[in-house]
Design a protein that fits this description.
By secondary structure, the chain is mostly beta strands. About 5% of the residues lie in helices and about 50% in strands. Strands 1, 2, 3, 4, 5, 6 and 7 form a seven-stranded antiparallel beta sheet that branches. A hairpin with a 6-residue loop joins β11 and β12.
Length: about 250
């Protein structure tokens, strides 16, 4: 099925000012599994408006992801509105390098048949990292010779996945499957080599049900669309935990 260009009436052409400061508050993604995936909405003249999928491309989605600080665009889907919506919608044409959607050339249409969507690489929420140690109340210290545990966890966004704990020596990591959206890494005896920065990386292969989507660039009308399930390996990294190994505990 090829997306047919609707016979919308272009009533105005607005050239956005290139180089303006990006304001994420005038664009958002809704009805998705996170703030970095969903239907594109633009705030214009006092209300949130849909973005039509006419000529919607991975370049347009890339600008949305960049403006929302959601990483890069991995897909530019569209979804049928179920018929023409009697509202003003926004149609964009981006080069892909803009910092905000408003910097792209935009047209305003009376009706919308297809809603534009975006899926960004930052789909997964950021995991958290925590330390369990014999030092009461400590969040970053462990006694030399004592055991300690570092726990990685994430919100119940998707089932499954795995955690990779980046270790402070030789750029190595340890991996465990996510069980109840978390994983714990036990270290039997702390020594000086354990001191340094640790981070948790959560990885998950996510399947999203999408009507139509694009993952490559192309020009209208030679745009090639894929249909059905979209599968992609997503990852998200925690803030660093700086561990300090201190003197031996006095018994």
């Amino acid at each position: 099925m090829e997306l047919q260009r609707p016979a919308a009436v272009l009533t105005a052409v607005i050239l956005m000012v290139v180089g303006s400061t990006a304001e994420p508050d005038d664009v958002k993604l809704v009805d998705g599994s996170s703030r970095c995936a969903g239907t594109v909405k633009v705030f214009h003249t006092g209300e949130w408006r849909s973005v039509t999928a006419v000529q919607w491309s991975i370049k347009d989605a890339a600008v949305v992801c960049r403006q929302l600080d959601c990483g890069s665009a991995v897909a530019a889907p569209w979804r049928s509105s179920g018929g023409p919506e009697s509202l003003w919608s926004v149609q964009t044409e981006c080069e892909g390098s803009e910092s905000a959607l408003r910097e792209c050339r935009s047209y305003y249409n009376r009706h919308i048949w297809y809603r534009a969507e975006a899926i960004c690489s930052g789909l997964l929420v950021q995991p958290t990292i925590s330390l369990s140690t014999t030092i009461r109340g400590s969040r970053d210290q462990v006694f030399r010779g004592d055991s300690f545990t570092i726990t990685c966890s994430t919100q119940p966004q998707y089932p499954g996945g795995s955690f990779h704990l980046k270790l402070p020596w030789n750029n190595t990591s340890d991996s465990q499957p996510a069980v109840n959206h978390s994983a714990s890494f036990l270290f039997p005896a702390a020594d000086d080599s354990h001191q340094g920065n640790y981070t948790c990386v959560y990885q998950n292969q996510v399947t999203l049900q999408i009507e139509n989507y694009r993952v490559t660039e192309g020009q209208w009308p030679e745009i090639k669309w894929s249909h059905g399930s979209f599968i992609h390996n997503f990852s998200s990294e925690s803030e660093p935990l700086s561990l300090i190994v201190t003197g031996t505990q006095v018994v």
